[in-house]
Amino acid sequence: MIGPRVYVSIVTYNSLALHGEPCLKKCLDAVFAQRGFEAGSNLFVRLCDNASEDGLEAWVKRQFADAPLKVSVNAANLGFSAAHNQNIQEALDWGARYVLILNPDVALQPQALSCLTEALERDPQCGSATPCLYRADAELAAVTPRRFDAAGMYITRALRHFDRGSGEVDQGQYAICEYVFGGSGACLLLRSAFIEDAALDAGELEKESAKVFPQLRCDSKPRLRLFDEGFFAYREDADLSWRGQLLGWRCLYVPEAQAFHRRVVLPERRRALAPELNLHSVRNRFLLQVNNYVFGHAPWAFLEGVLLRNLLVILGVCLWE
């Protein structure tokens, strides 16, 4: 059985230096090994590199010289959001029915893509589907004992979003296919109709984003703004999930679709992360709420989330960061 047309969007930035050759090679090999899909036929794979300085472009072209893999390189680091937006525009032009957002540190199991697409084919009210992600080592092999990385995303009364099951040992607790708030941007399948409906108006948004990130002006090609480029990186997946909920779309967690993810950024490792990463994380927390919080939809979250939790974050920044 031949699956629908799927476009795989991978964005890299110094990924060889960060993850190593075995990790990236296993990620790409797993994409080309998806059952029911043939690259160059119903599968299009695009790797968009954000001006890496680790020789990534040459390595990819050398390792995958004969593979139907398209590589593009930006003149500057445009961030996760803008680079994926570039790919998404191309996906729609190509006529993709689905777009898979995929991190270079994720290895799909052979049936993952078919399970995700079949789930969305059965449920037209779902705009996205998220797999069962397991924690992986540096070579994208499952850690022992097997632990969840993300079984979908949920949001709390304090307007904090988390990956379900993060770090939990797998004891069958997330074995049911069900609706969730959203999915991790590490691996997320999007329906093209959802993409077109959830896209942002580029006009004023484009100008404001470029004030914060001037490098966004380096790319003048028109592109659909699915991810808010003002996020640059981090929490843009939660922003898209929340926007989808407000528009009436649902996200489906599909446990039969499995993948392994080598996660670097975790809340418990916050103090070990680069200050720039924590900066994006904090500012994007506020941007997330500015974009999506509606008092009438969740009045109970105003005191606990908008006021109290945000005050704690501001105090933390002032006192420790």
Strand content: 15-25%
Q: Secondary-structure element sequence? A: EHHEHEHEEHEEEEEEHHHEHH
Query: What is the number of beta strands?
Result: 12
Distance between the termini: 54 Å
Count of DSSP H/I helices: 10
Largest sheet: 10 strands, mixed
Derived structural class: alpha/beta
Descriptive account of the structure:
- Helix 8 (236-246) runs parallel beside helix 9 (275-292).
- The model has no long low-confidence stretch (mean pLDDT 92).
- Strand 8 and strand 9 form a beta hairpin.
- The protein has helices spanning 15-19, 21-32, 56-63, 79-94, 112-122, 192-198, 202-212, 236-246, 275-292, 300-319; strands spanning 6-12, 43-49, 69-73, 98-102, 106-108, 126-135, 148-150, 153-155, 161-163, 178-180, 187-191, 250-261.
- The longest helix has 20 residues, at 300-319.
- 37% of the residues lie in helices and 21% in strands.
- Strands 1, 2, 3, 4, 5, 6, 7, 10, 11 and 12 form a 10-stranded mixed β-sheet that branches.
- The protein is built from 10 helices and 12 strands.
- With 321 residues, the protein is α/β, with parallel strands linked by helices.
